[in-house]
Amino acid sequence: MDLDFFNKEIEGKPLNESLAFLAEMFSGQVAFSSAFGQEDQVITDSIFRNDLNIQVFTLDTGRLFKETYDLIDQTRSRYKKHIKVYYPNTQAVEGLTSQKGMHSFYESIENRKECCYIRKVEPLKRALKGAKVWITGLRAGQSDNRQSFNMLEWDEGNQVIKFNPLLNWSYDEMIEYLKLNKVPYNKLHDQGFISIGCAPCTRAIEPGEDARAGRWWWETSKKECGLHQVKV
Known about the structure:
By secondary structure, the chain is of the alpha/beta class. It has helices at about 5-10, 15-25, 40-50, 65-80, 90-100, 110-125, 170-180; strands at about 30-35, 55-60, 85, 135, 150-155, 160-165. It has one domain (about 5-200): Rossmann fold. Helices cover about 35% and strands about 10% of the residues. The protein has a 6-stranded mixed sheet with strand order 3-2-1-4-6-5.
């Protein structure tokens, strides 16, 4: 896969044009995974408003906030577009909760990663089956872990080109886009929840804390769920 060619083609292009280019080059094989964070809503707006041939999907872990579910319905209503929802394997969830209880993820990093794999990583692999390009809402400013990511890179684990179109966007640029285009967003953001995941694993952050400090707040490790490989 000649990533240099694609990098040159999208370099300097605005968001909608870079998305449109990949949607044309890989017709019917481009997928965008939305967790309905602010970054994701920027990309969703660009895809839907420009009627791009990109499948938008989300992963329902079964542990999301009510406000996230409300936003899913609000987004569907706003754009009148389809959003595919993927769920964890029922037997895997039943096995986990039967053996380790409902909150095993608090007990160790290994348990937490096991839960993330069942509820997020495995469903993602199903969602990306047949895709050539995976679009994400990652920004480098979200955490130190993501500073090493590239806008366009090869994802070995999922065997797809991974496109991070907002990687170099600042937080202020993202907020300005949402305001300018009147894009719906999760109301928890107004309550100090910057990065929003599953309800038991997310808290609001304190002034001065890292944007992802509220995710898996009881841990001190590099806090990723396994969807995105951390480069070391």
